[in-house]
Each structure stands twice: as C-alpha cells, then as structure tokens.
C-alpha cells in the first residue's frame, strides 16, 4: 500500500451557516478529490444478518469526518471496516469496496496488522495499559522496533496529545492515576506514537465530562493538521463543532422484518446542519427523531 499525504494545509475560511454556538473552529471547504478512504456499496454482515447496507462515502485527507445517527444504525460497524477491526469479530463479513489511497483495503495481499498501525483507533472508554504513563506511549514504538531517543519521542508525542505539561513530572506513575480525560489523551498519544496516518475515534468523549470533552475536541482540531480523523459521536453538537464532513446513518426494518443500518446522507458538515437534502436528516438534527 502506498501512502501519500497530498492534502493542502488546513485553511482559515470561516462561516459554515450553522448555529453560531456550534461553531468553534474555522474550517476549510472539504476536498474529497483525492480521498484517503473511498467507500462504495459497502454492506457488512454479522453471520446471516446484513446489519449495514449500501454505504457510499469518502474521507478526505487531514479532515475530520463525523458519523452520526441513532443507536444501532451501524456507525461503529462502518468505522471498524476502515482499519479491518471487523476481521476480529467472528462471523463479520464485508461486501463492497473500501479503498485506502486507491487500493483495496480488503485485497488478499494487504496485511491487517500494518493496516491497524497506519490507521489507529481510540475507543469509547479510555483503556490505557496497566503500565506507567511513559510506557503507555513507548510501548508501540518499542514493539515496532523504533530506534532513537525514546525520551524525546515520548515527550514529543505527549506534547502533540496536549498532555505533556500535565504529566511531565510523573511519567513513571501509573496511567490509572490520571483523570478520565487525561487517560483518553494518553490513549490518543499511544495511538499517534506509532506514527499513523489516520485516527479512528469511536465515541471518544462519551465517558468524559464537558470540560474534558472540549479538551479532546481542541486536540482533535490540532491533530487534524497532521492526521485524518474519523469520529463516531452521539453528540450532534460535537459533530457540528469539529467535523468537516458528516455522514448521517439511520436504522430501518426490511420487508423480511430484519433491522439494518444505512447511510442517509453524506455531505459537508455545514450543509448537513443547515440545509440537509433528506427529511430524515432534518428530523434527526432538529431533534424530532432518534
Ligand atoms: N459483534 C457483533 N455481532 C453481531 N452483531 C453486531 C455486532 N456489532 C454490531 N452488531 C449489529 O450491527 C448493527 C449496527 O451496530 P453498531 O454497533 O455498528 O451501531 P452503532 O450505530 O454504532 O450503535 P451505537 O450508537 O449504539 O453504538 C446492530 O444491529 C448491531 O446489533
């Protein structure tokens, strides 16, 4: 697989047409001409259940793409296809196509371990290793055989994760001694320590208080200068605040009575939250549904 970072730096264009209280960041108009991921006609089965159907969307480089929608509509399932985490679920099967920089992510010669190094993941509940703060960050680089000054790498990574100032005097202490928000930033540091291109985040703030949440959002915005981020969130304000593009999913029931998730609409976040094309999106974002 080739990796090319051809995105232009983040711009400063302002104004998205969404409610002013949701706009915290100035974003550039998303460029999807040279996507990191191109998802076409994607369906995901769990055993005989076709749980998510016919998803088509793109993820632009160094952008934040949000996935929103009611519980069970398939957001996490689609997110997991982007770094082949679904491979680890018995009975899970992917149909359709997911390309990563134009190459089939599910081709037989693609190494899923390497995929997961390049495309890291942060989970809902902060899950640091039962190790020191330092070792949480150094763990990935060490097992990847990274040489060089580990102290520098740890400092640089914790700085990028906006955590260095808070932990620099207690690097040898257990990660569990940190607050939930700090633990989540440590997990983000652990993810970026192995130099990925993409960070997938599955409801990274759902276990955090509002202040810790805003810190993570600020961090996401900073990180998007360098990394491509895809976030699943239940918090629509969060999607509106931080993302460049938004995918709205919904859950339905087919003629056979089987429940399934599908993508309703994918567009620039500004458009989704001001002039959605589909009535179901409008109903959801205005709180009339879900
Ligand atoms: N490991 C699994 N095995 C079997 N079915 C699963 C599995 N994970 C998810 N599903 C099913 O796939 C569908 C989509 O679930 P998924 O968790 O992706 O939705 P979601 O939108 O992320 O939900 P939530 O917002 O509640 O986390 C659901 O019907 C769910 O039951």
From TrEMBL:
Segments for region (Disordered): 1-23
PROSITE patterns: ABC_TRANSPORTER_1, ABC_TRANSPORTER_2
GO terms for MF: ATP binding
Biased composition (Polar residues): 1-11
Domain ABC transporter as annotated: residue spans: 37-276
CDD domains per UniProt: ABC_PstB_phosphate_transporter
Pfam name, any one: ABC_tran
Keywords of the record: ATP-binding, Nucleotide-binding, Translocase, Transport
Coiled-coil ranges from the UniProt annotation: none
InterPro entries: AAA+_ATPase (IPR003593), ABC_transporter-like_ATP-bd (IPR003439), ABC_transporter-like_CS (IPR017871), P-loop_NTPase (IPR027417), PstB-like (IPR005670)
Keyword ATP-binding recorded: yes
NCBIfam families recorded: 3a0107s01c2
Name of the protein in question: Phosphate transport system ATP-binding protein
